[in-house]
Design goal:
- By secondary structure, the protein is α/β, with parallel strands linked by helices.
- It contains 10 helices and 11 strands.
- Helix 5 packs parallel to helix 6 and helix 7 runs antiparallel to helix 8.
- The longest helix has 17 residues.
């Protein structure tokens, strides 16, 4: 069966991406084709020698989300050889290797090594590939100046501490995940033990967040310690100025009522609400009182 395909980094697989993939499914159904999403093992900027943005999702999470949307997902190794292909050569590659006969492109998406003779629609016709430009998903139906939902817009919102906007555009909570590593263990002395995470996803603005924490047993084969459904928890991201953490950036979660050893286990944190900015307190006692107040918000 011929394939209707689209291509992109798909970081976050956010609402804009899912709107694109809905268009792909409609076009494929009208033509009797199956659907395919083509994505990359690494961000293309890495191969092109440019700095890549921090990712919103892990590769595993991205693949899980994409497979819910299309019939097939293929991961391209965007190496130096592929980077040298013109748009026409790249389309021919997709036709010959994957049976692509329709290519749905994002409204502002460009691909292939730039050439003065570029004409995607003409090249597609000559190669037997229908080229269609997708409609973007605006942030606001009434204010076009706000732009469209995109991974870069979500990154900006997270860095600026606008978690509500980021989660709205993602279509669900921003997720941090990774192994629990050794920390300074200061939280134990305060009466609020924490699990310190090492995670590769984009960290939002420093501060305190209400999260939902679950264990990822597929990453750690021993019996899980947390309930399968997860637990509410308090996440702190920052430099912990009250306890003089120096330049180290900590990602630490306190799970009320839990006392087990989570070291080396993998946790998933769904960020639900941003509670407050990081701040320096005049004493450890003042910090303890504020943490107690923060924990009260988890019950609301």
């Amino acid at each position: 069966m011929f394939k209707a395909a689209t291509i992109g980094t798909f970081d976050g697989v956010h609402r804009g991406h899912r709107y694109l993939l809905r268009q792909l499914r409609k076009l494929a159904a009208e033509r009797g084709m199956s659907t395919m999403a083509l994505t990359f093992l690494l961000h293309p900027a890495t191969t092109l020698g440019r700095p890549a943005p921090p990712m919103l999702t892990t590769m595993v999470d991205k693949m899980d989300r994409l497979t819910d949307e299309v019939d097939d997902v293929e991961v391209l190794d965007f190496d130096a050889d592929m980077a040298r292909l013109t748009a026409r050569e790249f389309m021919q590659y997709l036709r010959d290797h994957y049976g692509v006969r329709l290519l749905l492109l994002g409204h502002d998406h460009r691909f292939g090594r730039p050439s003065p003779d570029d004409d995607d629609e003409r090249d597609g016709r000559e190669l037997g590939i229908e080229i269609v430009r997708a409609l973007p998903l605006p942030i606001s139906e009434t204010d076009p100046t706000l732009g469209t939902i995109s991974s870069s817009a979500i990154r900006r919102a997270l860095v600026e501490g606008r978690l509500d906007d980021a989660n709205d555009w993602l279509g669900g909570p921003h997720v941090l995940s990774g192994p629990v590593v050794r920390g300074h263990q200061v939280g134990r002395t305060l009466g609020f033990p924490t699990a310190n995470l090492r995670c590769d996803q984009l960290l939002p603005k420093a501060g305190v967040y209400a999260v939902w924490v679950t264990e990822m047993p597929d990453m750690f084969p021993e019996p899980v310690l947390l309930p399968e459904a997860g637990l509410p928890a308090l996440l702190n991201i920052g430099h912990r100025p009250t306890v003089q953490n120096g330049s180290d950036l900590s990602v630490e979660v306190h799970i009320p009522g839990f006392s087990g050893d989570l070291y080396n286990r993998y946790l998933r944190l769904d960020l639900l609400r941003r509670l407050r900015d990081e701040q320096q307190f005049p004493s450890l006692e003042a910090l303890q009182k504020q943490i107690a107040l923060d924990l009260e918000t988890l019950k609301r």
